[in-house]
Each structure stands twice: as C-alpha cells, then as structure tokens.
Write a structure and sequence with these properties.
The chain has 14 helices and 19 strands. It has 495 residues and is α/β, with parallel strands linked by helices. The strands form four sheets. The chain has an eight-stranded mixed β-sheet with strand order 7-8-10-9-13-17-14-15, sandwiched between helices. A six-stranded mixed β-sheet has the order 1-6-5-2-4-3, sandwiched between helices. It has helices at residues 30-38, 42-49, 85-101, 123-137, 166-190, 198-211, 222-228, 231-237, 291-306, 351-361, 378-384, 396-408, 442-451, 482-490; strands spanning 2-6, 15-23, 59-63, 69-78, 106-109, 156-160, 215-220, 245-252, 261-271, 311-321, 333-335, 341-343, 369-374, 389-393, 413-415, 433-434, 459-463, 469-470, 476-477. It binds ligand BES, manganese (II) ion and zinc ion. Residues 271, 273, 348, 350 line the site of manganese (II) ion.
C-alpha cells in the first residue's frame, strides 16, 4: 500500500473514496466542513435526518456523482467523553475495515484533524495511528488456503494533514512501520507449527538481515549452546526432533558506545507440555507459544524501517516442547548457564527454562535495559484477561516507561509485583530452585524465577499469554505487543 501526506483541502484531491469523521455533537473538523461544502450540505442533511449520528465507530458509505470522489465514507468519532486515543483507534478501525471491503482502489483519509482530548496527543500521533491502523486492517493470512479470498483492492491512500514536513512524515513512517511489524508478527504466529519450527524461525531472521542492511543476524545451534552451558534451554528441546536455535539480531543505529536495549523473546514453536502433557482441547493454539519471539521480529523489522539513533539487540530462544523417549522428565535436575541448578517438576513450565539461559546470555551485550516477552503463564490470563499484558520489573523507572509506552500506543500493560515474599515458593529440596511455584500467583512465581537470572541489569518481563492472539471465531495472532515495543524503543532515542 502506498500512503502519502497532503496538505491540500479535500476538494482538491481526487479519490475513489473520501473518508471523513463526524462527532456526535459539537463542531465538525475543518476537513469535514470543507467536504460538506463541496457536497452542497449533504452531510449536514444526513446528520439532521438522523441517518448519520456520529456514534463512535459507526460507519456510513454512499456513492456521489460529479464530485472529486466517487463515494463517501463517514465514520462516527463519538461524543465529548469518547475522545481518548483508544476510542480514536476504534473509529479508525471501523472506517478502514469498511474501506478494505469496498471497491475503492484509492482513498483520501481526513481523520487527522479529529480532536483527541489527551493533552500530550498531537496531530503527529494521529497521523501515526492512521498509518498503523491502515496496515493493521489490510492484514490477511491466506497462504494455506487453496482458494484465496480476493485481496483488498485498496492500493493508495492520501492522508490529509496540516502540512507535509519532516515531523508528520516521520510520524507516518513510524505508524506504517509499526503496522507492518505487527503484520510480520502475525504471519509468524499464524504459520502452522509443522512449518514454523526453530530452524524456520532462524531462516526468517536470516531473511530479515538480507532484506534490511541495518540488521545483522547470528544463529547458534545446539552444539554451540551446549558449549555455553545452556542446559536449561536444551532440556526443553530434548524431546523434539527439531533442534533448538538461539537467534540473535542486532540493529546498531546509535553510537558504538551507546549501550543497547535488548529484547528477549520466548520462541516455543509448539508447546505440547512435554512429558507433563497438556489436555487436548485447544492445544493447537500452543503454536502461538512463540508469540514473544514473533513480537521481537516485528519490532526489529519496524526499527529497521524507521532507523532511529539507538542500538537494539534481539535474542530469540527457539525450541519445540515435545514428549518422547529423549524428553526431559519431571524430577530431572539441570544446571543453567548461570550455574544455578533447576529441578524441573513440570515440563510444561518450559518458557522460563529457555528464557533463563537467554537472559544469562545477553549479559555479554552490557545492556542499557533488557525486556523479555513471553506467552509465559495461563495464570496471567486469569489475572488480567485479554486486555492487558502483565508487566514485571526490577526497575521502577523502566516499568513506568513501559507503562507510558503502552498507554500511548493503545497497547496497555499492567504491573504485578515480584516481591521477595514470593521467592520461597520456588524452593526445591534437591536443587537451587524448582521450575514451578504451585497454583497461587502463577504469573508472579514465573516472573520471580526469571528475576533470579536478571540481577545484573535493568530488566522487565512482559507476560503476553492473554494478548498475543485471539481464540475462537477470530482466531489469529493479534500483533501485540509490537506497538508497545516500538513506542518504548523510540522513547529511548536521544536518552
Ligand atoms: N505456554 C504456556 C502458557 C500459556 C497457556 C499461555 C495457555 C497461553 C495460554 C506455558 O508454557 C505453560 O504451559 N505454563 C503453565 C505453567 C505451569 C505448569 C506452572 C501454565 O500456565 O499452566
Ligand atoms: Mn508450557
Ligand atoms: Zn509455553
């Protein structure tokens, strides 16, 4: 999709479809007023007749003749109390979803001058969200259907804005790159686990380096990991015919002395539970257990497109968790790369086992911060549902920075504690720790486990078990938390 900015008034731009916003009451945005004037007051008439109420995310599309546009798409932007960025996003989503299903090949989108009442939200933020939501709504995953649904016709979008200078252009690029990053994350997540295994993920990382000169990829195989002492990680792939991979992607856009921000992704390409096998129902969804890894890929691709002046290192711990004669048993004790020993009481608590070695490995980068992303615990869904990602951190400033990024990006997180009081739940009779802490506070004890490997740097853990994908009729990867990650990384530029 080709998306550009224009500062011309709507009537000066030809398009298959003009998209305008109408609020429930109060003054209309300038662009809507200008469009209405060009339409001879048609919009005002529809409003008066009650056919176009302005209710948040309601849409109305109709054809017009002898105008610069063939059709008009009106989207309701809601009442005065609806003016949050999240609601603005709802309106964009409704509009672009309808636009995608229409016959329009090109569109003029005027929604950047719809007011949002969050004080630090600017036109640039709105332009950015328009770019992101356009990409987001055009997403399709059809590679495995023999009969492909027709692709959306929309190929060109002009975004009306107050200017076309660098600030707004950068905002548009940021949004488009974020949306495309989300879509890469979804592609990786939705790819079936017989295709998306650790070796395939490693190939995707090599492809990323090939497609983006600014990305360098390195892949460690099991032999190299064994040499590093990553026995905890390797205990997870022990039962699988697919070898584990440690995937490292580096983006160096900052000065060479700038310490990198490190992302670590859980990349379990299928989580059967291993010998502690999961119940059958819904087990297919455990192909999404590489959602942390997928979001790291998406964020790196976005960063490669935006090219900010920071250094970012991404590490993905990729493995498949399967039962077999060579699988790890409940009761096995392994020595992690850190030297700490772990009694594996449940082979289904495998995410922490791969992450702990990856978190030890990243010390070598002397990180400014480390953020790990993982579909780590079912308990996180019980605690926060599918709305918020769980946040845990050993650093208050980092936790606040991530929380603010989530707010801005409409991709929210909520912090849970990792107080020392929880640590004894991981005491083992035979090793330095056990890998489960019982039913109570399952997400917290998982984070406490990780915290034993992250003492040397500023660290945050994001449990995305509830947010990385949708179940049921709309089953599919959500692309979260790529918007959060991109916003967070960008907030470190110039710091
Ligand atoms: N990948 C799962 C967590 C998960 C389950 C995410 C369902 C999303 C939906 C993880 O590896 C796991 O199995 N965790 C166990 C931990 C338990 C054995 C301590 C869980 O949450 O049940
Ligand atoms: Mn598991
Ligand atoms: Zn898992």
């Amino acid at each position: 999709m080709n998306v550009t900015l224009s500062s011309k008034t709507p009537d000066a731009i030809k398009a298959d479809c003009l998209v305008v916003g109408v609020p429930e009451k109060g003054q209309w945005p300038d662009s809507t007023q200008q469009a209405d004037a060009a339409l001879g007051g048609l919009l005002a008439e529809l409003h008066k007749a009650g056919d176009m109420t302005g209710k948040l995310a309601s849409t109305l599309m109709f054809p017009v003749s002898d105008k610069p546009w063939d059709r008009i798409l009106v989207v309701g932007t809601g009442g005065d109390s609806d003016r949050s960025p999240a609601n603005y996003r709802k309106a964009l989503t409704a509009a672009f979803s309808q636009l995608k299903d229409s016959n329009a090949r090109n569109a003029l989108v005027t929604l950047a001058d719809t007011s949002t009442n969050t004080t630090d939200w600017t036109e640039a933020d709105r332009v950015s969200l328009i770019g992101r939501t356009l990409e987001d709504q055009m997403y399709r995953f059809t590679g495995f259907k023999s009969e492909k649904a027709p692709a959306p016709k929309l190929a060109k979008v002009t975004v009306a804005a107050s200017g076309t200078g660098k600030a707004l252009k950068d905002a548009l690029i940021l949004g488009l790159a974020t949306g495309r990053g989300m879509n890469l994350t979804r592609d990786l997540g939705n790819t079936p686990p017989n295709v998306c295994h650790p070796t395939w993920l490693a190939e995707q990382a090599e492809k990323m380096a090939k497609d983006h000169e600014v990305i360098k990829t390195e892949v460690l195989d099991e032999k190299q990991m064994k040499k590093l002492g990553m026995n905890s990680l390797l205990s997870v792939s022990a039962g699988s015919a697919q070898p584990a991979k440690l995937i490292i992607m580096e983006y160096r856009g900052g000065k060479s002395k700038d310490k990198p921000h490190v992302l670590v992704g859980k990349g379990i390409t299928f989580d059967s539970g291993g010998i502690s096998i999961k119940p059958g129902e819904g087990m297919d969804e455990m192909k999404y257990d590489m959602g942390g890894a997928a979001s790291v890929f998406g964020a790196m691709q976005a960063i490669a497109e935006i090219k900010p002046a920071i250094n970012v290192v991404a590490v993905v711990a990729a493995a498949e968790n399967m039962p077999s004669g060579t699988a790890t048993r409940p009761g096995d004790i392994v020595t992690s790369m850190s030297g700490q020993t772990i009694e594996i009481l449940n082979t289904d608590a495998e995410g922490r086992l791969v992450l702990c070695d990856a978190l030890t490995y990243v010390k070598r980068f002397e990180p400014a911060t480390v953020v790990d992303l993982a579909t780590l615990t079912g308990a996180c869904i019980i605690a926060l549902g599918h709305q918020a990602t769980g946040l845990f951190s050993n650093d208050d400033a980092l936790a606040e920075q991530l929380t603010a990024a989530g707010e801005r990006a409409c991709d929210r997180v909520w912090r849970l504690p990792i107080w020392d009081e929880y640590q004894p739940l991981l005491d083992s009779n035979f090793a330095d720790m056990q890998n489960i802490g019982g039913r109570a506070a399952g997400s917290i004890t998982a984070a406490c486990f990780l915290s034993r490997f992250t003492k040397d740097y500023r660290w945050a853990h994001l449990d995305i078990a509830g947010t990385a994908w949708h179940s049921g009729k709309t089953k599919g990867s959500s692309g979260r938390p790529v918007p959060l990650l991109v916003d967070y990384l960008m907030s470190n530029v110039g710091k």
